[in-house]
Write a structure and sequence with these properties.
The chain is mainly α and about 60 residues long. It has one domain. Helix 2 packs across helix 3 and helix 2 packs antiparallel against helix 4. The chain starts with a helix and ends in a 6-residue tail after the last helix.
């Protein structure tokens, strides 16, 4: 868990994660985890991943 938090604080996209988290009323760490491969479990997670793809954080496959 500590390494995830450390990686979040060292991330260049931290401001984007914060902005998306504010928009969807969740934590920036949750957005970071979704951006790095965690599976979404709700519709809100789906919209967060969609927003990350629009921002160019996640490359669509």
């Amino acid at each position: 868990m500590w390494s995830i938090i450390k990686c979040y604080f060292l991330s260049r996209n931290r401001d984007v994660y914060r902005a998306i988290a504010r928009e969807y009323h969740t934590s920036p760490l949750h957005v970071y985890r979704l951006a790095h491969g965690k599976r979404g479990k709700s519709n809100k997670d789906y919209y967060i991943v969609k927003k990350l793809k629009e921002q160019g954080i996640i490359i669509p496959v």
